[in-house]
Structure formats: structure tokens, C-alpha cells
Specification:
The complex is a heterodimer of chains A (256) and B (195). Chain A has eight helices and eight strands. Chain A has helices spanning 10-14, 20-31, 34-52, 60-69, 82-85, 89-100, 102-118, 123-149; strands spanning 154-159, 165-171, 176-182, 191-199, 202-208, 216-219, 227-236, 249-252. Chain B has helices at residues 17-26, 30-52, 55-72, 83-109, 111-117, 121-131, 135-142, 146-158, 162-169, 173-190. Classes of the chains: A alpha+beta (256), B mainly alpha (195).
């Protein structure tokens, strides 16, 4: 199981089709990977449906045997939440994130899903190119994973003027910022959303959202060092060196 | 609640009902467990039997699974998935473990006999197809590519590891791994699974 392809083990894991050793290895990865956890969960809901399709009628004797056994069985007490026993900060943060911001996790996981999903379309011919794209997407997803799991990560959500919402995720420790967005207004082909750091009263270009994207996650280029905030504007295709319109998003970054 | 569940119509409590029932089960409520039993005993037994074939052994494992639900109800965490998925994952895991330990011992003792014991792929596929009780699952399985469907069937309904699946289908290991995932994702979308 290599670092790059570990995400694609969700299916074989959900099907119990891994050896014990491989399953343990994947579980260690899954504990710190919200995307994998989410996908495994969905795939297990799916396999449960395959189980329902096999239903058989148990005999009355079977039922009697099960019920008769219960009084002799000692029931387990609930588990103490992991966080109280360990300082397993990363997995715990992931779990908290998933509970609080499921849409954020889904958005991040899309980065992987969009590309690895495309992998199946024409594998033979485009294998090389696709693998490269997959690795790139997975590297980006890994960066996002690390950012979201950073102990000092902050989340600032806001409505986007003109439609949609966004969350700026920032870690000073990692010197990285990402913008997670949902339901943005679709722009005409000659326009693009551009991200900015606001630093010392000036806007510094921080990358473009993919053309046509209305939902997704983009890691900002450059670092948040010394930046007071993050902005988003609508610019002519290709982007601008300075904003040419009023920001549709302007979010302050924590100063440290 | 004292009648056995009809095989083709498992009792289906409303959404969230099974989760609430498990909470009561975790506090020793036998009546709640009887309702859970009505909803899940049919598919648990059916799934285990699909994997193990032997009726007596299947009942034994299905019984273990249901008792495990009683024993571990407090460990069920609704944040991590539905109660049905929790129980069916447990049932599948147990049955697969039994398949593999049986395989390991018979491999040691008698490789040829083990070969005999394992039905040919076409036969399994046909039986599985014939016995699928839910039209929707059948329809969605039909929407998969042949390789996706065959590998999902071998892995899920026969308990093959992906290595064994790759060997049986004469396909590269990496391909089987991605086909299994692609197949499940397509099934998930086709069955409109939410989580």
C-alpha cells in the first residue's frame, strides 16, 4: 500500500477483502483521513443494501435459541470517548470536524473523487496521464488533510456576495490557507474568481478558482504570513494583478 | 413481535428507529431487542448463509452475530453510520472470518478437497443472481460493468480477498482493487445511499 494509492483501498476495505495486515494498515491511515472515513462509511451503507437483498426467514427455533441466550450475556459498557484517553489529536480533530462540518469534509473529498473517479473512464489509454493527475490531486488532498487537521486551524465562514457561501481555513503553523466554497454564482466564460491575501493594505494575488467551479476547495498560493485577511473577487479570465472589482468575500485572518 | 420475519419483507422500522432501539438494547431492554431481531435476523441469516452455504454453520454464525448486537449495542455510534450498516458489516466480517479460517484449515489438510468445496464461479454467480430478492439491488448490480459486478459478487457474497478475486478473474490486482471501489461507488449512487 503506497502513500499515493492508499485512498483507493476504501472499496476493498468495506468489502473485508483485505488481509488482516493490510486492513490494519488501512485503518491506521483512515484514522487520520476524513475522506477515507466518509467514503468507507458510504460504501458500508451500500454493502448493507447488498445484505438486505439476501434476506431469509429464520426458523422459530432459531429465534428461541437467540432469545434464550441473552440473559447469560454480559453487555458491554459504552466506550469512553477516545480523546479522554489519548492525546490522539489528529484523529480526534478529524472526527470533530466531520461532525461539525460535514459539508467541508465532503468538499475536500471531492478533490480526490473528481480525479480518481475519472481514472476509470479510459484506464488503458490514459493510464499514465491519469496517474499523474491522480497523484497531483492526492498530493493536494493530502495538503488539505494536513491543513484541516492542524491543531491551530481556524475556520471563518461567510456568505458570498452574489450567492453561495465560503469558509477560509487557515493554519499559521503550516503557513497555509484554503478556501472552501459552495453554491457560487456561475460566471460567464470570460470571467473567473480570484483569491487574494490582504497584506499591509494591499491585495496580493493568491490564485484562481478552477474555471466554472461553483463548489470545491482551493488551496491559496503563497503564505498567509503577515496577511490580515483573504478576499475573493470576480476578474477577467486569466486573473488580474490587482482587484478590478469589489470583493465578494472578505474574511479576516487571526493575527498572531 | 413474536412472529418470524418473512424473508422477502424484512420488517423495516422508520428512519432512525433502529438506532433508537439499539440505545434501549444497550440498557438491557429485551423487548427492544426483539424488534431489532425482527428487522435484522432475516438479512443476517441470509447473508451469512450466502457466504457459508452450510445451514447449521450459518445458523451458528448468525446467532453469534445477533448476540453480538445485544452484547455490543452500547458501542454502536450513530455518528459513524446507520445501525443497519453496523450490524450487516459485523455479520459480513464474522462470516468472512469463518470462510477464511475454514479455507486455511482445509488448505493445510487437503488442498484438493478445498478446491472441490469451492463452487465454480459461474455457478456461484448464477445462484447469487437467482436468489437476489430485491429488484433494486439486482437492477443496480446490472448497471455495473461485467468486471465490476463479478468482482463485487465474489468479494461480498463469497468472501474472497481481492487477491483471490484477481486470481479467479485472471485480472491484475490493482485493476480489481479499483474495479471493486468503482463498482461500489456506482452501486452507492444507483441505490441512492445516503450517510
Amino acid at each position: 500500500m503506497t502513500r499515493a494509492d492508499v485512498h483507493t483501498f476504501t472499496g476493498v476495505y468495506a468489502l473485508h477483502a483485505l488481509s488482516d495486515r493490510e486492513a490494519e494498515e488501512f485503518e491506521r491511515h483512515k484514522a487520520a483521513c476524513a475522506c477515507c472515513t466518509q467514503e468507507v462509511r458510504e460504501l458500508q451503507e451500500t454493502t448493507a443494501r447488498l445484505a438486505l437483498a439476501t434476506s431469509e426467514t429464520p426458523s422459530a427455533e432459531f429465534r428461541t435459541r437467540v432469545m434464550a441466550a441473552l440473559p447469560q450475556i454480559r453487555q458491554l459498557a459504552p466506550l469512553v470517548p477516545e480523546g479522554r484517553r489519548f492525546f490522539g489529536l489528529r484523529p480526534l480533530r478529524w472526527r470533530l470536524l466531520q461532525r461539525r462540518m460535514p459539508q467541508l469534509v465532503v468538499a475536500v473529498c471531492l478533490v480526490i473523487a473528481l480525479v480518481t473517479g475519472g481514472f476509470a473512464i479510459d484506464e488503458q489509454r490514459q493510464e499514465q496521464r491519469q496517474r499523474h493527475a491522480t497523484e497531483q490531486a492526492q498530493a493536494e488532498a493530502a495538503a488539505l488533510n494536513a491543513l484541516l487537521a492542524a491543531p491551530d486551524a481556524t475556520f471563518r465562514s461567510t456568505a458570498v456576495q452574489g450567492g453561495g457561501s465560503g469558509t477560509v481555513v487557515n493554519s499559521q503553523a503550516l503557513q497555509r490557507t484554503a478556501f472552501v466554497y459552495q453554491g457560487l454564482t456561475e460566471l460567464s466564460a470570460d470571467k473567473v474568481y480570484e483569491l487574494w491575501y490582504s497584506r499591509g493594505g494591499q491585495y496580493v494575488p493568491a490564485g484562481l478558482l478552477p474555471v466554472g467551479a461553483v463548489d470545491g476547495t482551493t488551496v491559496l498560493t503563497g503564505t498567509p504570513r503577515g496577511a490580515a485577511g483573504v478576499g475573493l473577487t470576480v476578474e477577467p479570465a486569466g486573473g488580474s494583478a490587482r482587484p478590478t472589482t469589489t470583493p465578494v468575500v472578505l474574511v479576516g485572518l487571526p493575527t498572531t | 413481535m413474536h412472529s418470524a420475519v418473512r424473508g422477502d419483507q424484512p420488517a423495516a422500522p422508520g428512519p432512525g428507529a433502529l438506532e433508537t432501539l439499539l440505545d434501549r438494547v444497550s440498557r438491557g431492554d429485551q423487548q427492544a431487542f426483539e424488534t431489532v431481531y425482527s428487522a435484522v435476523a432475516g438479512p443476517v441469516l441470509g447473508l451469512v448463509r450466502r457466504l457459508l452455504r452450510d445451514p447449521a454453520q450459518s445458523e451458528e454464525v448468525a446467532q453469534e452475530v445477533l448476540i453480538e448486537v445485544w452484547r455490543c449495542a452500547a458501542r454502536f455510534d450513530p455518528d459513524r453510520g446507520s445501525a443497519m450498516a453496523w450490524i450487516m458489516t459485523m455479520a459480513h466480517r464474522r462470516a468472512v472470518d469463518r470462510v477464511r479460517s475454514a479455507q486455511a484449515s482445509s488448505d493445510r489438510e487437503q488442498r484438493a478437497a478445498a478446491q472441490d468445496h469451492t463452487p465454480a464461479f459461474d455457478e456461484v454467480s448464477e445462484q447469487v443472481e437467482r436468489r437476489l430478492e430485491r429488484e433494486q439491488v439486482r437492477r443496480c448490480l446490472d448497471s455495473l460493468t461485467e468486471l465490476q459486478r463479478e468482482s463485487v459478487m465474489l468479494a461480498y457474497y463469497r468472501g474472497c480477498t481481492y487477491q483471490e478475486t484477481a486470481d479467479l478473474l485472471g485480472t491484475a490486482l490493482g485493476t480489481i482493487k479499483t474495479r471493486l471501489r468503482d463498482g461500489l461507488i456506482r452501486l452507492r449512487d444507483c441505490l441512492a445511499v445516503t450517510s
